[in-house]
Write the structure tokens for this entry.
Amino acid sequence: MVTMKFKNAKWNLIAGIAMLALGLLIWFNPFGTMLALAFYIGLGFILIGAFYMMASMNVKSGWYLLVGALDLLVGLILIFNLGVTAASLPIILALWSLAVGVIQIIGAFEVKKFALPWKWSAIMGGVGVIFGLVILAYPIIGAVTISTVVGLYAVMFGILQLIEYKISKNSYTIVIENN
């Protein structure tokens, strides 16, 4: 028989309070949020671009190389112009989404020639094009949506952590018997 005790309630409390504070900070400081998002998204684009470029060497795909170069370029723009890109992040993401969407659609039909799965890539490309066009038509909605969704996630996560704290503030004992 093995007895294990879990005492994680304090960590749920700390995580819950931290995420609630973060969510409120995001909601009440949307410009700071956009600066941080511009940096982290830029870093992500640089890494993804590098991986696409490396993948293009393995599969000998000019389309992978093009997407990788585009991602790398967008990432560098975001990181080296944080103030400007924070204000224009929705437009930059919309233009990126349009470009990658079109490339995905073209690439999907190229892959179709080789009887490989292509439909999901074409669908995702179409969704990217639609997303890009909607954000270009309503860029303010894009900026507000980005901050609102990130803040909402942090607040919801914080609330769930506090609920878990309330449920688990007593330590639990689990008994495992070996037969």
User: Anything to note?
Assistant: The chain has one domain: 2-176. The beta strands are 2-6, 172-176.
